[in-house]
C-alpha cells in the first residue's frame, strides 16, 4: 500500500523526488491522517481490493466501544505462554489472551505463536512471533481502544514482574479463574509493570467473554502483506480456472445473486470445501461421537460430495476448491465423484503446491483460511475449529454488510455444515450465533447452526 501511495504524491514531487523512504514516510502520515480524520475512509480495507467493501474492517464499528475515553493503559503489560496447536486454536488463544489483558486494562506483549503443528513435543513447536504472520500496527489501529499489543522494548523495568500462576484441574472453576483475574486488577498485583501469566497455553484457559468480543479481536488480525499476496495468488488461480470453465458467466448472472454485490467488480464465484476426512480426524471425530452420543459429527467423503452437490440454488458450473490436510494431497480420489457441474481442485491440480511448500504449517494454514474465507460459498464441518472460525468471520462480514436475515437462501457469503443434513438432502445452512455468551460452540464444535 505504501509504495503505490507514492504515485499519488507526485504533485509534491520537488520535495520527494530523491528518496523513496521520504515518500513512504509521507504515505504513512497520509494514512495516519486519514485514520484520524476520516474514520469512514476505507484506507484500511483488507488486502483483497476486489472485496474491499466486504473485508475492510469498518473502523467505526471497531472503535465504537472505545471513543477515546476508554484507552488501554500503555505502561502496564501482560505476558502469556507460547500459543500452540492448529492455526485456529492459536487465533482463539490469541484473542483470549487479548481479552484477558483487556480485563486487566493492560497491553498484551506480542506473544509467540507456533509455526509447526506438534501437539506434545513442546521443544518442536517452533516459536514465531505474532507480528511475523499478522500485522502489528494494523492490529492496534483496528482494535484501538479495545485491546492493545505492545513490544518487549516498551517495558521500562524488566524485573518489575508479577508471576500469575493459572490454576488447573477440576477444582479450578471458571468462577475461581475470574476471581483471580479480578484480584490482579487490584493492589498489590496491579502495581507491577508486567504480569506474567504462567501455566497452560491460553486456548485451555477458562473463557469469560462473549462471541462478539472475540469477533472484534479477530477482525483486527490481518495477514502481513507477503502472506496476503500468496493468498491472493491462490484465489486468482481459482478464479482464472473459473473463467475457463465457464466463459459465458457474465455480470448479470453473478450480480443477480443479490443486489448487495452489484457494487463489486464482476467475480467468478467459487465454492470452498474444508474437507475433513483424513485418518487422524476420523479417529478423533468417532471418539467425540461416542462420548457425546451424537451421530452428526463425522462425514465420509461420499456424504460431503453428495451434500455439497445438493446445495440449493448453487449456480453451475463452478469451481470447488478443496481445502484438505497434507496427507490427502496425494489422494486423487478426492477429485472424483463430484456432481456434474462441480469441478474440484486441490492444491496440486491447481498448481499452487509451490506457494504452500515454501512455508511452515501455520502459514500454509493461514493461506488456506483466507481462500475459504473469501469463497462465495463455504462448506465445512461444524465440529472443526477451522471451519467454525471461518463461519464466524463470514457471519461477521454479513453483519457488516447489513444483512438482516442470515439464513435467507439468497444471501451473500452463505456457509454450510456438511456434517448436518439440511434442506433437499443438502448441507445445513450455518451462521454463528453472535449473541452467545462464550466461545464454547466455536472452540469445541456444535450442531446448533443458528439457521
Ligand atoms: C484503563 O486505564 C486508562 C488509563 O488509566 C483509563 O483512562 C481507562 O478508563 C481504563 N479503562 C478501564 C476499562 O478501566
Ligand atoms: C524495577 O522493579 C523492581 C521490582 O519491583 C524494583 O525493585 C526496582 O527498584 C525497579 N527499578 C527501577 C529502576 O525502577
Ligand atoms: C480482482 O479483479 C481484477 C479485475 O476484475 C482481476 O484482474 C484480479 O485478478 C482480481 N483479483 C483477485 C485476487 O481476484
Ligand atoms: C444416546 O442417544 C439416543 C438417541 O438420542 C438415546 O436413545 C440414548 O439413550 C442415548 N444414550 C446415552 C448413553 O445417553
TrEMBL record:
Pfam families: O-FucT. The keyword Transferase applies. GO terms for molecular function: glycosyltransferase activity. This is O-fucosyltransferase family protein. The keyword Glycosyltransferase applies. CDD domains: O-FucT_like. InterPro entries: AtOFT1-like, GDP-Fuc_O-FucTrfase. GO terms for biological process: fucose metabolic process; pollen-pistil interaction. It comes from the Eukaryota. It comes from Dillenia turbinata. Belongs to the glycosyltransferase GT106 family. Keywords: Carbohydrate metabolism, Fucose metabolism, Glycosyltransferase, Transferase.
Amino acid at each position: 500500500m505504501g509504495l503505490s501511495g507514492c504515485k499519488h504524491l507526485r504533485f509534491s514531487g520537488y520535495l520527494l523526488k530523491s528518496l523513496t523512504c521520504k515518500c513512504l514516510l509521507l504515505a504513512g502520515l497520509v494514512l495516519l491522517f486519514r485514520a484520524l480524520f476520516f474514520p469512514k475512509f476505507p484506507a484500511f480495507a483488507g488486502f483483497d481490493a476486489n472485496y474491499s467493501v466486504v473485508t475492510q474492517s469498518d473502523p467505526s464499528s471497531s472503535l465504537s466501544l472505545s471513543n477515546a475515553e476508554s484507552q488501554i493503559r500503555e505502561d502496564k503489560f501482560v505476558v502469556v505462554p507460547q500459543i500452540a496447536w492448529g492455526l485456529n486454536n492459536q487465533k482463539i488463544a490469541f484473542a483470549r489472551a487479548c481479552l484477558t489483558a483487556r480485563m486487566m486494562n493492560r497491553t498484551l506483549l506480542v506473544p509467540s505463536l507456533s509455526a509447526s503443528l506438534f501437539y506434545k513435543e513442546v521443544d518442536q513447536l517452533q516459536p514465531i512471533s505474532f507480528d511475523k504472520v499478522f500485522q502489528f500496527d494494523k492490529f492496534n489501529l483496528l482494535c484501538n481502544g479495545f485491546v492493545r499489543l505492545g513490544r518487549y522494548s516498551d517495558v521500562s523495568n524488566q524485573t518489575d514482574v508479577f508471576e500469575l500462576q493459572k490454576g488447573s484441574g477440576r477444582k479450578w472453576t471458571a468462577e475461581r479463574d475470574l476471581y483471580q483475574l479480578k484480584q490482579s486488577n487490584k493492589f498489590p498485583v496491579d502495581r507491577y509493570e508486567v504480569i506474567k501469566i504462567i501455566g497452560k497455553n491460553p486456548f485451555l484457559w477458562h473463557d469469560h467473554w462473549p462471541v462478539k468480543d472475540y469477533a472484534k479481536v479477530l477482525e483486527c488480525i490481518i495477514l502481513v502483506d507477503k502472506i496476503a499476496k500468496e493468498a491472493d495468488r491462490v484465489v486468482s488461480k481459482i478464479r482464472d480456472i473459473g473463467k475457463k470453465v465457464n466463459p459465458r458467466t457474465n455480470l448479470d448472472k453473478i450480480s443477480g445473486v443479490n443486489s448487495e454485490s452489484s457494487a463489486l467488480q464482476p467475480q467468478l464465484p467459487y465454492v470452498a470445501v474444508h474437507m475433513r476426512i483424513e485418518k487422524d480426524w476420523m479417529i478423533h471425530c468417532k471418539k467425540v461421537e461416542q462420548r457425546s452420543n451424537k451421530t452428526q459429527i463425522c462425514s465420509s467423503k461420499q456424504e460431503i460430495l453428495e451434500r455439497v452437490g445438493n446445495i440449493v440454488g448453487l449456480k453451475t458450473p463452478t469451481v470447488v476448491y478443496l481445502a484438505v490436510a497434507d496427507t490427502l494431497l496425494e489422494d486423487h480420489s478426492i477429485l472424483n465423484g463430484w456432481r456434474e457441474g462441480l469441478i474440484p481442485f486441490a492444491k496440486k491440480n491447481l498448481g499452487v503446491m509451490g506457494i504452500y511448500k515454501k512455508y511452515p504449517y501455520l502459514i500454509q494454514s493461514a493461506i488456506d483460511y483466507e481462500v475459504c474465507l473469501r469463497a462465495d460459498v463455504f462448506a465445512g464441518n461444524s465440529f472443526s475449529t477451522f471451519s467454525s472460525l471461518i463461519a464466524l468471520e463470514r457471519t461477521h462480514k454479513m453483519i457488516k454488510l447489513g444483512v438482516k436475515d442470515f439464513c435467507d437462501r439468497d444471501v451473500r457469503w452463505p456457509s454450510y455444515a456438511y456434517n448436518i443434513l439440511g434442506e433437499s438432502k443438502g448441507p445445513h445452512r450455518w451462521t454463528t450465533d453472535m449473541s452467545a455468551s462464550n466461545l464454547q460452540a466455536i472452540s469445541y464444535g456444535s450442531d446448533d447452526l443458528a439457521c
